[in-house]
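Technical annex, item 7. During the second reporting period the consortium partners agreed on a shared format for inverse folding records so that results from different sites could be compared directly. Each record opens with the tokenized structure and is followed by the designed sequence. A conforming record, contributed by the partner at site C, is shown below for reference.
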């Protein structure tokens, strides 16, 4: 039986820490992305944890053949770990969470400043609203509070617990890649990504791609003498939509809860440079979902073959085929062995609090799980507060009760695994 963690968890302090973190506008590539890491290191050092803080050589990492990609201009990053030491006779548990956030987008879509946290009722629940509330500073605050509760409880742990906040997760995984290259290792890991307190032992991947279409410019008054890339793009778009449908016809059972388990989407389109000129260049960028059990190379080949077939069926594109470039974040799919003890530990301690085991499912998004399991060989699961659908949206929110519940559950998991 897992020893009970005394009521050392301070809900008020947990939420104050989260609000302070949300006030740091740590979008990828900004100075605040480094600031939030430094702020956490300082706070954790004040609490008596063992701190390791190092400057990340971004250029050197980017030259590594296994580098997972990066989509923003980033010259500087900061690595941080904070360790609660055990006696050295038990397993080491890594608690991982990213502190970078995506840009807020259209400010008019927000009810107030995206980086000023506020309490609001959302679907009848008391929630904190701010960019990063769901994805995933609430998870970082929860794992922090859990470690503090265990440290203050007086329980002697056999194994170490490592808090690892990371940068650059949203655009590839720089921070966790740097963590592994720095030599951080553990026997198992919980990433506190938003799962609505579900247990996610695996997820699909996500590959960023760029399509370049070339046409023939002409004066708009004689447009039939040119070839518009805007008019050609639907040929490619239809082929991609059919590819998405085919790739989702049969999916891994843990992905069955999602309407589209492995989405394929176009995120940006740029074409033309003058209103009265037939556009001769179109650049579209998108995201290809990678199926669980599928390699990155197989996924790329599937999309490239689909584009090639679509081009071959069109007279102009057959002579001027679309160029496919893979760039930015390259997230492989990954899954932890369903029989690994980390799944049982998370499930049992969740059930001890809530009276029922957590829902087990796979995530349709890429995450650092694939780096930790693949490069690090660390069995990893996701478990954390937040509704995944709220991530990246205007008025992003996290239910307050889920944040405090997650912290209590993770504290029990620490004692179960390391105690």
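Designed sequence (site C submission):
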């Amino acid at each position: 039986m897992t020893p009970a963690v005394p009521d050392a968890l301070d809900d008020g302090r947990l939420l104050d820490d989260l609000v302070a973190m949300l006030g740091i506008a740590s979008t990828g590539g900004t100075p605040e992305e480094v600031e939030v890491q430094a702020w956490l290191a300082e706070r954790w050092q004040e609490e008596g944890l063992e701190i390791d803080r190092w400057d990340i050589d971004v250029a050197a990492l980017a030259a590594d053949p296994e580098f997972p990609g990066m989509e923003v201009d980033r010259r500087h990053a900061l690595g941080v770990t904070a360790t609660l030491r055990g006696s050295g006779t038990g397993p080491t548990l890594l608690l991982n969470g990213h502190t970078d956030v995506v840009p807020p987008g259209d400010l008019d879509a927000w009810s107030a400043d995206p980086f000023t946290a506020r309490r609001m009722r959302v679907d009848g629940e008391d929630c904190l609203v701010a960019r990063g509330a769901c994805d995933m500073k609430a998870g970082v605050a929860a794992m922090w509070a859990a470690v503090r509760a265990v440290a203050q409880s007086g329980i002697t742990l056999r194994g170490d617990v490592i808090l690892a906040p990371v940068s650059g997760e949203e655009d590839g995984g720089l921070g966790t890649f740097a963590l592994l290259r720095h030599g951080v290792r553990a026997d198992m890991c919980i990433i506190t990504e938003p799962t609505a307190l579900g247990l996610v032992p695996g997820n699909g991947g996500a590959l960023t791609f760029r399509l370049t279409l070339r046409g023939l410019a002409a004066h708009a008054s004689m447009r039939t003498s040119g070839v518009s890339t805007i008019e050609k793009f639907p040929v490619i778009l239809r082929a991609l939509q059919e590819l998405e449908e085919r790739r989702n016809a049969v999916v891994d059972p843990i992905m069955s809860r999602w309407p589209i388990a492995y989405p394929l989407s176009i995120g940006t389109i740029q074409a033309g440079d003058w209103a009265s000129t037939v556009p001769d260049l179109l650049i579209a960028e998108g995201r290809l979902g990678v199926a669980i059990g599928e390699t990155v190379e197989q996924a790329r080949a599937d999309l490239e073959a689909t584009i090639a077939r679509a081009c071959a069926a069109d007279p102009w594109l057959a002579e001027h085929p679309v160029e496919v470039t893979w760039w930015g974040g390259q997230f492989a799919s990954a899954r932890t062995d369903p029989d690994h003890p980390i799944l049982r530990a998370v499930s049992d301690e969740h059930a001890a609090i809530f009276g029922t085991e957590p829902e087990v499912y796979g995530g349709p998004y890429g995450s650092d799980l694939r780096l930790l399991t693949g490069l690090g060989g660390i069995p990893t699961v996701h478990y954390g507060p937040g509704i995944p659908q709220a991530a990246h949206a205007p008025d992003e929110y996290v239910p307050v009760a889920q944040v405090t519940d997650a912290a209590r559950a993770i504290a029990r998991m620490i004692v179960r695994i390391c105690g």
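The longest strand covers residues 205-214. The longest helix spans residues 133-153. All partners now use this format for quarterly exchanges.
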